[in-house]
Design goal:
Blueprint lengths: L2 H35 L1
């Protein structure tokens, strides 16, 4: 595997990780908001 291939794979992985964190964070925030509103 070329060095460039590894680099783009690392970038894809980082993006995916950020996406997961963002999704979890959004879920937590909306849950807290709903709990507060009820």
């Amino acid at each position: 595997m070329s060095h460039l291939g590894k680099l783009s794979k690392a970038q894809d992985w980082a993006k995916w990780q950020l996406q997961c964190v963002h999704n979890n964070w959004t879920k937590v925030v909306s849950n807290d908001t709903f709990a507060y509103l009820e």
